[in-house]
Amino acid sequence: MEKDILYREGNFHIRRYSGIPEDALTFLDRIAWGNEGAVYEHKNTEEHIRQLHRPSLIAIYEGEEIRGTAAFCNTPVGANGREFNCFYIRYFASSPAIRGKGVMKNFSIKVMELIREREAAKTVYFACIERDNRGSYRVVESAGYTNIGTIKTMGFSRFFPRLSPRVDTLGSVAERETVLNLLRKHYRGHALVQFNALFLNDDYYVIREGDEIVAGCQYHRVHWVVNRMKGMMGKVIMNVVPLVPLLNQLFNPRRFEFLAFEGIYCKPGYEDRLQELFESLLAQEGLKSSMFWMGETCPHRIAIERYGNPGLIHTFIKDSDVYILAAFQNMDESEIQLVKDSPLYASAFDYI
């Protein structure tokens, strides 16, 4: 795998890989995510990493040991009808061996500088930082990133989900293009719009009225282990819910399996069909709970929330906001403001 040494300082150096090397997969598989709030482990890390869109890994090494990582995924993104080059950051992680020593902060600043210096195109860089992860927030902010908006975590669950005969897959390439056109129009006024994770494993499903698609979404099946949740309510959820029959089918911290929805489309007035779609996909996969992420000011999120009846899991996770921190290269103030002023689009694949 192609690699470059970008920087050296003392016993540390920074490498850039085109792709994700095997030692980074091993490192990331051991990481517990989160900090001051919820702490959890991803149990399908390798599968997801292999599906990242055009990733480059930046790794901080002490000698030959990885101490920190950031994967920069390169893609065009839409922003209120405009298109910009973009690098979004995944797997921003540090080893316990360097936490609290200032190493990650100092080298992250250098990494962000080196990445931006190499780019000639108009480019947006952004990272998703959980609201309670103050350490990562401070590190990314110190590297020149600013908060441009909040992504809300939404939950949907059913104790006894039912299959719907109206739910169907897409039957052709032409139908996929129809869905993409619907989504481009649906999220035209948003920023950071990209659909790279759609149609993975042929898992985009729709409901039609006649020949018209009125609701649709992609799902990803996810497995987490949750080690901690914040606050007194978090302690109750962690310690009591797993002991209560039925409730422990919605949320079991030792094996939390759920569906993550994205590319969500709903024709106005058909919110009931969207919930029917979500419920049927849960039944199809033998699960009770799902999550999805949408911008705080996204009008589609507001419409879905207004419709109501998300299920009990939403109560458990509704305060798990995510901040979007962004930096800009070669963009003028009007272009930057365009991104900042637009509702944000979120791909669930970036959060699982």
TrEMBL record:
<dbReference type="Pfam" id="PF00583">
    <property type="entry name" value="Acetyltransf_1"/>
</dbReference>
<feature type="domain" description="N-acetyltransferase">
    <location>
        <begin position="12"/>
        <end position="166"/>
    </location>
</feature>
<keyword id="KW-0808">Transferase</keyword>
<dbReference type="InterPro" id="IPR016181">
    <property type="entry name" value="Acyl_CoA_acyltransferase"/>
</dbReference>
<dbReference type="InterPro" id="IPR000182">
    <property type="entry name" value="GNAT_dom"/>
</dbReference>
<protein>
    <submittedName>
        <fullName>GNAT family N-acetyltransferase</fullName>
    </submittedName>
</protein>
<dbReference type="GO" id="GO:0016747">
    <property type="term" value="F:acyltransferase activity, transferring groups other than amino-acyl groups"/>
</dbReference>
